[in-house]
């Protein structure tokens, strides 16, 4: 009989059940640290700056950005796809890994899911403000109206996008919130003042921890996990339709749905690594919960999805060649790799395909500084992937007389940077007021991997 | 519980229903069998018959009489309210309308009136039809009855409309307070009475002069002549682009100075030596339409050879273009004369003069065979050929020699009297530099006491060598008649502010015997007075001069009397004057163009004395006017500044064109600023690298760099007039030796076209005459396309357009027509650089062939109104939809501006309102807007509509006349302006229409990006170069004659400027 596979412990430091509750509730219950304050103030300033930028764009015109003829979509759509992509890892971790009974997901699921919700919220603003007349955006929703009634065009991928994003935002928010209910109750029980008790009491929706509560909870959580799972695949598939369904060379490719999903998971996990590294630095006690093992598993996923994305890049070339379509061939063989935007293409290749190869080495997979840097590069690379798709396809299409460049302006920079302000403001607030790790789910996995006691 | 309450509801309703009084009916009279039989359905219908909510009726059909109607209503209301509250901030423009209190008889609100008028820019003139809506001119077209332009019109003529509404136009008489140095201290308003009194006082002192441009109006000329009799005033004419070289050449060759008429329509072989007759020389609109006559039938095409020292529009359209430098102009003609005489014979003395140029081909670096072929072609079509030279690019020291040589060549070819008609042209083109130099001499001598300057701008356009500014200070009184505070008027004592042309009566004679009327379109908007009336008033106040000058109160009365007395006699042909006059106003023109003239004898000694004075130098200057701005008078018109140069596609600037080799030698990139030095004069100007330019040429456009044109035109480009040099009394614009120096500075030149090569794609299909002989569809690769879907059905009309690339010269008149018709905004240089120009129709220009001798092709591109329009499917709010007549309609109100349609358009013809451009229209410029086309708000997409307003107008007209729509009833704006009739528009379902025939059976027709299967409603007809060459693979695929050697001359301006 061979040696049974020994798993590493999911929680380190021989914690008791009380330790877990104390550790996880601590950041919520104590006065914020100076580090947090510093981060929060800068994120919030950036957020206010972002709001101001949006106000200027909405009041003056989308022309403040670099969008033009022929590149009619720019920073806003690029950053939209970027943030939607970021959102994917959260749902994947919390729903799909839940269904596959991957116990290691537990410690990162909560924050990953929070990241999803906030990333989708950040993303969701872009399609609304990138229109020429944002105050008429409600025309994008099909509802009985007094204008005819005039309906939306169900053939337009942008409309599918409206449904996909709003469904995704709703389901992932509900899923995330349902998971939080038992922990809110814990916080309520531990509350030392009335306001806390009232607020967390209200949020916990009258949770009493009875067996029936638990039974219902588990069932709802399972169902929501089941509902979220197809969304992980569908949302980015539909986002990719915005491009794939059009007839622009460089957009019109059948590989886009799986390619986008893989890219989304890739960038999402990179963002989880970025955030978890920061959480580990900010709250050293969390190192016992979010262990190097967790990080390593996620790095493996990054490496795998990175290879998938690289494969997609390669297959685009193959199909462009095989299609015999001169326009498509021009886009891939001339415009992207060697045209005026070649730099963006090579940034993308370096960040997304080359740099993640470091994770072939266990030493790098388990090194926090290395993985932090790599995750940042992956995020940069994935933003550039969307830039390459959107801008380089548009800037040189069918008739050479139309060719032009994207007219990047300071508003583009402000919008891009500002969106991070929004995301981090919400995320930092979340870390302060919500338990960043699921208390209720941590406790059952404590003994996992303890071989002697009959574990796995 | 729930079920119970539901039942309860039902119960309640049933109770209520029962409580209603049942309608009692008498069965004696019945309406229908249902009534008679008293069916339950009938009873039900009866009960709800007069309850008229449409929702209720619909619900009633489903048998739910009451219940759902109310709920449905509340539901709809709730949903709408909830979502529309979000729309509280929608811009709802407040507009006040005021009706006519007394409506003028001829004005019907909403219906446009068209008036004949005329346009003259000092060189070119033709008849106009001006559209007036509710008393204000909004659009300018060519007069179809005018024999010169036959409905065609130039960009500049159309854009002159904006001059009327220019906010900076002077609004009343002014007086400049000049200090001792005669610089302007202050400008003050004066009353006409004061001004008139002072001016008359000065005039009475005698020695007065009038300086004006060419006067093409017989009546105005009569006023000036009468005024001359009154005050002894002498009249001097001068134009910056004066054709005195042609006139002088005629004089030297034949004895009489005149600018003859040229008949390009009768010439089978045309040789142009720097005469840009398709763009800027003499009468380009007329010439373009004549030239197109010879291009329409591909079987019998004319051949145009161009020897080009700039890259002119004529060169771009030539079947064979040869690059030369200005000093070689004479060599070309003399070389041709030598070749012709070698074949044809001629006097020994002439032969010996020409023999000096027997090596012309070598000097020009043209293969001797090709050069011989030019001469052979000329000879073959002797009497039906035409050699022209002229324009400021030929104003070298040899310009007179050049003209004499050209005249000689035309004479020996027998073209004289056939394609060159002496005295049948515009005999009123008398302007000359010589006359002005004489005037300046008199001014310096102090013998000019009063100078009246009528719309001339010598302080801008005249070489400093002539010293006009200094001479002006020696004139005690200078009166300026014009409507702008420009470079010259600000140094004049008085400004007797003139009307705009569209406010003035007048007449014209643009060709011998062709008389036109010039009707005003609007009453004077401000306190201005026409030049003619000013002269009449001054004479009246002094009570001197012929009777008719001082009798009439208005110039209109004078004009009418003049026509009654002088013109009617020779033109009315026995008609009574009232009828004649009314016909004249309606038709705008009387008289016919002469088709022949008696041939004159060439004065042999003129040719014998030809001796070149220009020496060859490394870099030679060639100044040229552009099609957009001409001499720069209209520099303040934004439409023209944003109109791309037809060849370079650069907007809002001029530049020094250099060849690729020259740029390499000087290490220059596009937009690098260079110093161009000619003798002691220099300018610094950005360089433009021009494929196909001679390595020894520095070509710079004049008409830019105005300092006092107005807000739009001030400081746009660099003034190149200062480079013109006076040598031996002659003002030279070309052939001057120049030095170019790199300054190290850079400047962004902005083009509307990002790339100059077709990259081997089938975009503009070009055939040669040989290809065409073999296969009329040569070089067109037809694709097999198919679809699962049967497509839209068009049961009524189906609109389509056909564009003949073989006749299109790229002159860009269509772009201005479209801009004026469709209220298209101008965005300015900064935003063109960002790719935000708004033109609905653009003209793409691609270079083909090897870079050093690049040929240019042009292609107008507008919305293709695809049957399978890619834009329609992707719009999430259905703001762009397909009409039952095949139009791709853009619903501005519905557009939220996702711009997805633009991304998905393979032709990229959609334009987006990035900002609220309409808000920037300064009053009274808004009066130039066409009320039939909505002004787009911020954030909506727009594009060519196929002039849907004109389609509606045409359909309405046919309907009110009770007939079916005929081909030609609907003419779109670009089509009407086109001087070559290259654009045809009509109903594809009408098989007799011109477009339907092209779609069905024209072998040269192809759709742009046909293989993409968007099924465009526009067909292009392949361009044919009549150059006797044969394209490789002419009968095969379109991959491609130009891909390998095509100039990869990325436009650094557009591409680099963005980053």
Keywords:
heterodimer; A: 456 residues; mainly alpha; globular; B: 1059 residues; alpha/beta; six-stranded mixed barrel; 30% helix; 18% strand
Describe this structure in words.
The complex is a heterodimer of chains A (456) and B (1059). In chain A, 68% of the residues lie in helices and 0% in strands. Chain A has 15 helices and no strands. In chain A, helix 4 packs across helix 5 (157-190) and helix 11 (342-354) runs antiparallel to helix 13. The longest helix of chain A is centred in the middle third of the chain and has 34 residues, at 157-190. The model of chain A has no long low-confidence stretch (mean pLDDT 89). In chain B, the strands form 13 sheets. Chain B has a 7-stranded mixed beta sheet, with helices on both faces. In chain B, helix 12 crosses helix 13. Chain B has 35 helices and 41 strands. Mean pLDDT of chain B is 87; it is low at 1034-1059. With 1059 residues, chain B is α/β, with parallel strands linked by helices. Chains A and B meet through helix 5 and helix 10 of A and helix 5, strand 32, helix 30, helix 31 and strand 36 of B.
List the helices and strands and how they pair.
The complex is a heterodimer of chains A (456) and B (1059).
Chain A: H1 17-29, H2 34-60, H3 75-99, H4 106-129, H5 157-190, H6 194-203, H7 211-244, H8 256-282, H9 292-323, H10 326-338, H11 342-354, H12 362-365, H13 368-395, H14 410-433, H15 439-442
Chain B: H1 2-19, H2 33-37, H3 40-48, H4 54-61, H5 67-84, E1 113-120, E2 125-133, E3 136-142, H6 155-164, E4 174-178, E5 184-189, H7 192-204, E6 208-212, H8 218-231, E7 234-237, H9 244-254, E8 261-262, E9 269-273, H10 284-293, E10 303-308, H11 313-317, E11 320-323, H12 329-344, H13 348-355, H14 360-364, H15 368-380, E12 385-389, H16 399-412, E13 420-421, H17 433-444, E14 450-454, H18 458-461, H19 468-472, E15 477-481, E16 494-495, E17 506-511, E18 514-518, H20 531-542, H21 547-551, H22 555-571, H23 577-587, E19 589-590, H24 604-608, E20 620-625, H25 638-641, E21 650-651, E22 656-658, H26 660-665, E23 672-678, E24 681-689, E25 697-702, E26 725-727, E27 730-732, E28 734-746, E29 750-751, E30 766-768, H27 769-774, E31 799-804, H28 813-821, H29 829-833, E32 842-848, E33 855-861, H30 870-874, E34 880-882, E35 888-890, H31 900-904, E36 911-912, E37 941-942, H32 948-960, H33 973-977, E38 983-987, H34 994-1001, E39 1005-1006, E40 1018-1021, E41 1023-1025, H35 1052-1058
